[in-house]
């Protein structure tokens, strides 16, 4: 039991640190899927949706505490009043992280007026050929699959995938060339 609590505390600590890095604009967001996989690998049952809710709550807690310039004790007292069922070890982890790194959170006007759009993190693509389907035996239809990794305003990183026909991809590529040309004039 002590080992499981220590492991859970370490993972919660990692999650809190990533949230603070996100709030300081040092990383695009918290990779919920990767964190969930690490937690599950350690033997703790949790799903991505529940972990996302926890991340959003801690993010809101830290950003509100930073805006209001709360001390560690004020944060813990507020947390105790708001969430009565929070395990003691979780409160200790949050207290420790806030005490060590809470003052580093940026509270500039830009941070207060956070953008409502997502932030691009990464892109992956692959070329495929559909050979056949249940209605057509010989398709030989080429397509491009694109996967965008995007951080939403709360910091959750998600993958967005879509497929394009070759003409759609050529149009997509043309628009990127136009953007690049405009950027070179700036």
Automatic annotation (TrEMBL):
MF terms (GO), sorted A to Z: NF-kappaB binding
Q: Which residues form the signal peptide?
A: none
**Residue ranges of every copy of the COMM domain listed in the record:** 119-186
Q: Which domain of life is it from?
A: Eukaryota
Looking up Pfam families in the UniProt record yields: COMM_domain (PF07258)
Q: Read off the InterPro entries from this record.
A: COMM (IPR017920), COMMD4/6/7/8 (IPR047155)
Function according to Swiss-Prot or TrEMBL: Scaffold protein in the commander complex that is essential for endosomal recycling of transmembrane cargos; the commander complex is composed of the CCC subcomplex and the retriever subcomplex. May modulate activity of cullin-RING E3 ubiquitin ligase (CRL) complexes. Down-regulates activation of NF-kappa-B. Inhibits TNF-induced NFKB1 activation.
Stored PANTHER family: COMM DOMAIN-CONTAINING PROTEIN 4-8 FAMILY MEMBER, COMM DOMAIN-CONTAINING PROTEIN 6
Family that this chain belongs to: Belongs to the COMM domain-containing protein 6 family.
Query: What protein does this entry describe?
Result: COMM domain-containing protein 6
Q: Which organism is it from?
A: Phaetusa simplex (large-billed tern)
């Amino acid at each position: 039991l002590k080992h499981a609590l220590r492991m859970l505390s370490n993972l919660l600590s990692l999650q809190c640190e990533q949230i603070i890095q996100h709030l300081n604009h040092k990383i695009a967001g918290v990779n919920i899927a990767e964190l969930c996989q690490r937690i599950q690998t350690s033997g703790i049952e949790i799903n991505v949706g529940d972990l996302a809710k926890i991340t959003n709550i801690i993010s809101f807690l830290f950003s509100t505490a930073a805006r209001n310039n709360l001390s560690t004790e004020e944060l813990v007292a507020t947390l105790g009043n708001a969430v009565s069922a929070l395990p003691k070890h979780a409160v200790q982890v949050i207290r420790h992280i806030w005490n060590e790194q809470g003052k580093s959170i940026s509270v500039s006007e830009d941070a207060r007026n956070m953008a409502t759009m997502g932030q691009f993190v990464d892109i992956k693509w692959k070329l495929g050929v559909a050979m056949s389907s249940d209605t057509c035996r010989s398709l030989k239809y080429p397509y491009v699959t694109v996967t965008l990794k995007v951080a939403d305003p709360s910091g959750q990183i998600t993958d967005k995938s879509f497929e394009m026909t070759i003409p759609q991809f050529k149009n997509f590529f043309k628009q990127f060339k136009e953007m690049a040309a405009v950027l070179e004039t700036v």
